[in-house]
Design a protein that fits this description.
Pfam families: GCN5L1 (PF06320). The protein is an all-alpha fold. The chain contains 11 helices and no strands. Helix 1 packs across helix 5 and helix 8 packs parallel to helix 10. It is elongated, with a radius of gyration of 46 Å.
Length: 314
């Protein structure tokens, strides 16, 4: 999203970035002390009491110098890339061959130069930088997904009529709705990011442009696509309702399952009780049979005793 990132960056900073050449001139104007880096005299830190402080300060200076060197190297690389494009007979070919060097910092730097040239009224330099930037953007865009390429083209259009002409192309209309309407999600995220930026004339212009792009993109849908989109929204709403109903049904099913489980436990308990009662009944019957046998034996014994007593009396 090179053009988008470039526009966002420009809106955030107001393009108040000092170009590398001026930074380099400012750096060359710094007083140079051989062997002393960016700090002052180190004679006071050479004493034994300040050795640890000197070591800490030296380490901090080293880190600062590393940061400065890395920043300077990055600025030089972007400036070299821009110079290469400006000097090329075929900027497009050079940009395609060096597409990995076309970073966000490159576009920020090139845009800063372009703004300076416009402010100074230097038409020749302005045209050369615009040509180089156009070639770089086209080369970078070729590596991006179709939705981002379309958004970049729409951001580059100056009028609503130009945007409508871009979107009149059937391929552009297809791009709007491909991949679950990724384009509109991308546009929405960009509008959200811009809305969070501090207020400025650049922000206001970008907000207006993004809203114009949304209006043009919404109007680019054919009646069939609009009907399909509405149908998709309706189906999605119905599907969400079905899911909510299914969730409620699942809850009811869970409650019913719990009740059935409880009933099963009670049934098992009742079955165990029936078995227990059957065992008791069998034991009672066995005891009753035993008692009957004992009673019969007693009666037989009494009868035998009575007969024996009668015989002895006679």
């Amino acid at each position: 999203m090179v053009q988008a990132a470039l526009t966002l960056s420009a809106a955030r900073t107001g393009l108040h970035q000092r170009p590398p050449s001026r930074l380099q001139r400012g750096q060359r104007s710094l007083p140079c002390r051989a062997g002393k880096g960016f700090g002052g005299s180190s004679s006071s830190s050479s004493s034994s009491g300040g050795s640890s402080d000197a070591s800490g300060s030296g380490s901090e200076r080293d880190r600062m110098q590393d940061v400065v060197r890395e920043s300077r190297q990055a600025q030089l690389s972007t400036s070299d890339m821009l110079a290469k494009l400006l000097q090329a007979e075929d900027p497009k070919k050079v940009a395609e061959e060096n597409v990995e060097s076309l970073t966000e910092m490159f576009f920020q730097t090139a845009n800063a130069y372009l703004t300076m040239a416009k402010k100074e009224g230097n038409q020749v330099v302005t045209q050369h930088i615009e040509t180089a930037l156009r070639a770089a953007l086209e080369a970078k865009q070729a590596t991006l997904r179709p939705e981002i390429q379309l958004l970049n083209r729409l951001l580059g259009a100056e009028t609503q009529e130009q945007r409508q002409r871009i979107l009149f192309n059937p391929d552009a209309v297809d791009t709007l709705v491909m991949n679950d309407r990724y384009f509109f999600g991308l546009l929405q995220r960009m509008q959200t990011d811009v809305g969070r930026m501090p207020d400025s004339p650049q922000k206001a212009a970008l907000v207006e442009r993004l809203e114009s792009i949304r209006q043009a993109a919404d109007a680019a849908r054919t009646p069939e696509e609009e009907a399909a989109f509405r149908a998709q929204e309706r189906i999605g709403s119905e599907l969400r309702a079905v899911r909510r109903a299914a969730a409620a049904t699942d809850k009811d099913v869970a409650a019913l399952s719990k009740a059935v489980h409880s009933l099963e436990k009670e049934t098992l308990l009742f079955g165990d009780l029936e078995n227990y009662l059957a065992v008791i009944e069998a034991e009672i019957e066995a005891i009753s049979t035993t008692l009957q046998r004992v009673q019969a034996a007693n009666e037989a014994g009494s009868a035998a005793a009575a007969r024996s007593g009668g015989q002895s009396g006679g």
